[in-house]
Model the fold of this input.
Amino acid sequence: MGQLVYAASAPFDFDDRVLSHVKIAVGSKLRRKESFYLGWTIPSEKGSGRMAIWLSPSIPLQFRFRSNAPGDINRAWVHAMEQTALSGGVMTVLDESDVEEYLRRHS
Done:
């Protein structure tokens, strides 16, 4: 389980594989000096609901991974998350299993 550490807030837990893909998608927007919301669904075992944080190049952000190996990257997954920011104003953390359906509906 990895963590996204945002500014001075408590860290947010994500699976390492998910966090690897979020890091790439978020990094591509921050490199272009773009600010945006990053949003995700909170699973029922952690209380349910939704979470969104404002990301800006000026706000400290860390990605902490439990594993040492980065793993394989699914470029379609990264692309789909980048596309969510264009259509809804919020980059949404998608499940990998939802990528094909999302891209089919939004391409």
